[in-house]
């Protein structure tokens, strides 16, 4: 254009604001990768478009200051870099994203970051760490659609390793979780099973599937075993050979490499290590296994106290009943039920009549869930607290269940509805049973696809 008068119509064009570029997170959320039928890897048709998305994620990241945003954007950028083949950049972003995600303390956010990092590691051929991260991420407390995606990607990782039976098991589990309601998952699993059939025909199905302990690289500790001759207890290794002699009247399982035992000549419990060496002599009238590096014990009539692995008192005595520490918090009972942290500080006041957490899938958790939520009971009315002591749902409901993305609750008339994770009404209490509410929640989430 020259410095003269604008051409006809140009003024009108100048008055129109250019459309802002699409949000890169929304673009990725709606992205549909093609699955290569041989490698079972994602394929992108237009790499330049994906590079543009990655650049916009970088721009957005520059203004992200909180842990949640940085975890989300870094892990999404890792997804883009992985598909583009920039695996070093993807690895760096994936590890940093996991650090930020774990700092939030949010189960779903950490699981997504673990899965996206595991996917990068799979493409790099670092299978042991990838398998471990996929397994750690797959908590039963996550939404079924995310758990199905984790099993699907675990299957692909096993496929790369030639562990074809194990891959089939993961595909089967994904279908159990989401098969009937997810046509895209069905299509991808069919591609995966066809690839497995082709590879198995050429080279067999590979090694027998591993257990969780092997995948998670957990040591298989000796287990209590009785000597039939003397009637005393020792410990045997996985092959059944006694590795700690049978010399105890009672023996608890090993936790954190330590076990409480009681000799036949005393009513006090001692602590031993994996070799059978005594670390703490006969001291406690009662003892419970270690968890999170702490164990509850009773020394005298003053009640339960918590000690560390050296026997040092960490939480002073004074509790009538206790539950194991879990992610830094333990449920305790004094005048009522509450919770303490690892320093003994009361984080949930001991004023509740119950602390028993029911999940929407029918399971129960004795205390806090992995996500840090618990159902409390006050005079027969249920509510929800988190591990910091914040009351998320006031105790006002006859029945309350924790769902992966909501709380299912009944009203005074026995009808079921749902609250969101802030405790605000989500679904009116008009349903006859919780299954109908879960179906309604699934409908609300119908457009959500986990981006791994």
Automatic annotation (TrEMBL):
InterPro entries: TPR-like_helical_dom_sf (IPR011990), WG_beta_rep (IPR032774)
Pfam families registered for this protein in UniProt: WG_beta_rep (PF14903)
Region (Disordered): 1-24
SUPFAM superfamilies reported in the protein's UniProt record: TPR-like
Bias (Low complexity): 1-11
Acidic residues bias spans: 12-22
Stated name of the protein: WG repeat-containing protein
Species in which this protein is naturally found: Micromonospora craterilacus
